[in-house]
Specification:
alpha/beta
Length: 234
């Protein structure tokens, strides 16, 4: 069974769809708990968590801070980190269950055998051709660079997660940071989709937003402090 950790901030509109794919009878009982880690919402996010039976806690604002708190609270042997505007496709639970069983069968007590994590296929809830082009670009980036972002989710064993130090308390780039520590050779890409809201792309544009993301990534690799990069990200 797995613990799902979801960082939120004023997520009352997107969160219900995200939670719907995580609770019975949608899944076959593999989700032990859902932990909502809120960064100071002023809307009805807490009420959504209460209605669905998810655990609701608060933490300093910032996905890195929030997911670190959730990871520390989780009780299961496997952790699934998911954004509050991401909906997993219906077959996700079967694929994840098979993945976990395969890893646990192969585990022979050696450190290396348990060092593996999984992410989902990036997809946007927009029918425009620009969304398909962006999905193609993300797939290419993942194939060539082994670099998924946080909106593709992250499934990782609690043991491996703790071993690499978990999420860093960063205002931005926490997803890139942990993926770099996992390593591309220890990362599996699932066939199941993580359908993510395209609202920020519709608002900022399918050219400007990806260019801004690329600029932030470049600055991060150049060693610019993430607190400064977060100003550019918006």
């Amino acid at each position: 069974m797995i613990s799902v950790v979801i960082p939120t901030l004023n997520s009352e509109h997107s969160l219900p769809r995200t939670l719907a794919c995580l609770i019975p009878p949608t899944v076959r009982g593999i989700v032990r708990e859902v932990i909502i880690v809120d960064g100071g919402s002023v809307d009805g996010t807490a009420s959504v968590a209460e209605i669905t039976g998810a655990k609701f806690v608060t933490a300093p604002r910032g996905r890195g801070h929030q997911m670190r708190v959730g990871g520390q609270m989780a009780k299961s042997e496997w952790l699934l980190f998911l954004h509050a505007d991401t909906v997993l496709s219906p077959e996700w639970s079967e694929e994840v269950e098979a993945f976990v069983e395969r890893v646990e069968r192969a585990y022979d007590g050696t450190r290396e055998s348990g060092e593996v994590a999984g992410v989902f296929k990036f997809s946007l809830d927009d029918f425009r051709p620009a969304a398909r082009r962006l999905e193609w670009w993300v797939a290419l980036r993942c194939k060539l660079a082994g670099l998924p972002y946080g909106d593709q989710g992250l499934l990782i064993s609690k043991e491996f997660y703790d071993r690499i130090g978990g999420f860093s308390e960063m205002p931005l780039m926490e997803d890139v940071d942990i993926v770099r520590r996992i390593g591309r050779r220890r990362l599996l890409f699932f066939r199941s989709e993580a359908l993510t809201s395209a609202e920020r792309y519709r608002k900022d544009g399918y050219v400007l937003r990806p260019m801004r993301n690329l600029a932030c990534l470049t600055l991060y690799y150049l060693g610019v402090p993430t607190r400064l990069i977060s100003r550019l990200y918006g």
